[in-house]
Amino acid sequence: MHVDRTTTRREAAAPGRRWLGGALALAVGSGLVLVGGAGTAQAADVNVAKNAGFENGLANWSCSAGSGTAVSSPVRTGAGALRATPAGLDNAKCVQTVAVKPGSTYTLSAWVQGGYAYLGATGTGTTDVSTWTPDSAAWKQLTTTFTTGASTTSVQIYTHGWYGTSPYLVDDVSVFGPDGGGGQDPDPVVPATPAGLAAGTVTSSSVALSWGTVSGATGYKVYRDGANPQTVTGTSTTVTGLTADTTYQFQVAATNSAGESAKSTAVTARTAKVTDPGPGPAVPKHALTGYWQNFNNGATVQKLRDVQSQYDIIAVSFADSTATPGQIVFNLDPAVGYASVADFKADIAAKKAAGKSVIISVGGEKGNVTINSDASATAFANSAYALMQEYGFNGVDIDLEHGINSTYLTKALRQLSAKAGSTMVLTMAPQTIDMQNTGTEYFKTALAVKDILTVVNMQYYNSGSMLGCDGKVYSQGSVDFLTALACIQLQGGLAPSQVGLGVPASTRGAGSGYVDPQIVKNALDCLTKGTGCGTFKPAQTWPSLRGAMTWSTNWDATAGNAWSNAVGPHVHNLP
């Protein structure tokens, strides 16, 4: 953090007074009376805390039981802050010893956020002080004062949390008073211009860049064609979302709390041409969809080649958003074990050769891609198509769980379809609340793109009770919940081939809503053949119902493939 050192002395001179050398001059009539003329000039008060904004990590600070760490976000100012985490009998106490002047008054302050936070001073030689605040969602300043004893030359300042509570954050610590001999941190200066900028690996949609370290820099801005700066903390990055077979110019500038350096000498790089991956196989009349995890959350880690053969559509989870609204990229997680991106692409090609569709999923529980304007719709279409070209994805899955705008999402999907062609696979995975009626944004989107939509696999899990198409309330986990809610989509305008049942692959695959594979099979039979129904029996059947979906192929593997082994053959043998 950058600490403001422009604070004036704690007692400003009153009107009609000014300092002359070491004396105070009082204007009395037309003459001057010198008071304390033999004294020396009083030095301006300073912040005697060192590394007060944690710009240099935890330098000058010591935290109990390794409880503290310097973070780059969230911060109040500058590029660093302290994050300390209480655990067990440790209250995450972080301390610093500061040099002070005997017999002097100091103002101690700090900005805090998060869990319970305490600020105090010990060893003052008079009365030790402290102050605190309960949880604070926003930055909040704690302030107190202390006076040093007649022989006190150092004081320990501290912060701490409370046992078993949430982590707390600290920034911009100040111990403001007379210099005790230790001085204050020097003001930062604008860093030098980075040198050695070079382009590395190039793909059809990305360019890798690296450059030399700049002393005093806390971050760097990477410019593309003189604009669109991307902020990074290290000395390398990969610029993504680029257009294939296009030349770009890149520059980098170093930054810290004092400002930004001049831009470096520019380098140019041209993205690679793309090879048309081909349309891929057609989706079967009755299909099984499975989500493949591009991360390790405790489920069996799979490469794409390991995905069970019963799955016809494999949704790679998930694309990542960027600072550009609507734009998506894909970052292969090292945790899944691929030696290279090329190996991953080869697995996609192999799955397609085996008759499977591999698509990129957008969203998920933690993912959020904002498409709420013409510009963001175009950014989505362009970037999604670039991923399809680069990796060979057959299409996209829309799994946005944080609200959508039907107007602009529809525009985005139609633009993407125009680029990808009629063989594009388009799936959706709305939550149950999103498909209760045709007036919801998700349902409106599904109907608006019905002519290019492959299947809607609604998530019949992590849901409360919902209304069925008969107006009755049904609880998750039953045949009736699956059939009565699917009926809403079937009666609301979707074709039977555009409706699938989405359920967890195991009890660990979702927080709630797991159903035994037999219940899934019964629900499929009820909707397609009129058999196996519960208390709800639809007035008609829909033999061309698309099939079923699960989260995830990884949790399925963890449970010994019980879900796909039971539901897969049943789906494929529907009428």
TrEMBL record:
Record-level Gene Ontology MF annotations: hydrolase activity
EC number: 3.2.1.14
Entry's family note: Belongs to the glycosyl hydrolase 18 family. Chitinase class II subfamily.
Protein name per Swiss-Prot or TrEMBL: chitinase
CDD domains, per database record: FN3 (cd00063), GH18_chitinase_D-like (cd02871)
Species for this entry: Streptomyces exfoliatus
A Pfam family that the UniProt record links to this protein: CBM_4_9
Statement: the UniProt record of this protein carries the keyword Cell cycle: no
Domain Fibronectin type-III: start-end pairs: 193-274
Keyword Hydrolase attributed: yes
Highest taxon, organism lineage: Bacteria
Residues of the GH18 domain: 286-575
